Amino acid sequence: MKIVEYELRRIHLPLVRPFRTSFGTQSEREVLLVKVTTEDGVIGWAECVAMSAPLYSPEYVSGCLEMMRTFLIPALNKATEISAAEVGQILKPFLGAQMAKAALETAVLDAELKIAGISLANYLGANKTKVPCGVSVGIAPSIEALVDEVTSYVEAGYKRIKLKIEPGWDITPVRKIRELFPDKPLQVDANQAYSRTDFKHLKQLDEFNLLLIEQPLEEHDILGHAQLAEIMTTPICLDESIISLHSAQDALELKATSVINIKPGRVGGYLESARIHNYCLEKSIPVWCGGMLETGIGRAANLALAALPGFTLPGDTSASSRFFKKDITTPFEMIDGHLEVPNGVGIGVSPDIEYMNSITKSVEIFTGK
Ligand code: NPG
Question: Where is the Mandelate racemase/muconate lactonizing enzyme C-terminal domain (predicted)?
């Protein structure tokens, strides 16, 4: 396949409510969209999940733009013909940049699957047509506000609740939600907010029958996670630490994690995500699909991934309305606690061009050979 044009577009979407985590508060979502056009005029879309600032991971929107424009797109342009499966190899010499690489690979894959006439879900090996929805709940201004927010999600039908925690906002809010919803699948996410001196404190979370605790310690602290896993009964699930199949295999082998959150952007794309899934399925390690406040473009592709057989826990695959009043695609609506997996060709969705244009801050176009 020959790509004749790459378009990098930065858009800004307001969030329905601020989303606070231990690494900061988001009030709007800045998104970098990638569009590729093949020589036959087939278009592929993808979303780069990097945030505006490097607070969750080292990548950020302007950095990804710079990385793509200076290194990644020129490297792809050197190859006359490319397939999605080759993108990772071509971009391998450039270190890191998983989110930027993932977006380019996904846009190429979307175009390729459109030409082949199959959906991403089929291509990846999905065996479900709908997936259960989990929801991620930010750190709230008060316990009352948290209760209101969680109650609204439970009433809407969400199958699993994830509470963001940090020192000073952990045992009390988790206890409150557990008391109110004793049977609801519940998990917590610390986004690296604790350290090895907090083990005794974190152990108190064991009494709440949580599905898992996500990334309690710093991303490089694999040993610390293994030590914590030894003393907690709550399963540890790594997120930020897992940036590839290799890192997933090592963390599992070292018993630093017993569940894996697969986020395609964080691991370099859907092809690497599928490899992690396949490895975990073989080893009977549960996986679930993480979320990064994606628009419908990224959400559609995540749903395809979450439909694979090893995704046995509900993911952060929420309805579009959880984050956006108006999405750039037809919104994903939750029915009976589930989202339908797109079955159109490629990622199965495309943006509403008029709306997308109205929230566009910049567009750069690179012509292929
Ligand atoms: O449902 O899209 C969603 C959000 C899920 O909490 C969520 N994502 O650490 O997993 C995370 C967190 C996140 C949010 C990460 C923003 C990075 C940026």
Answer: 143-235
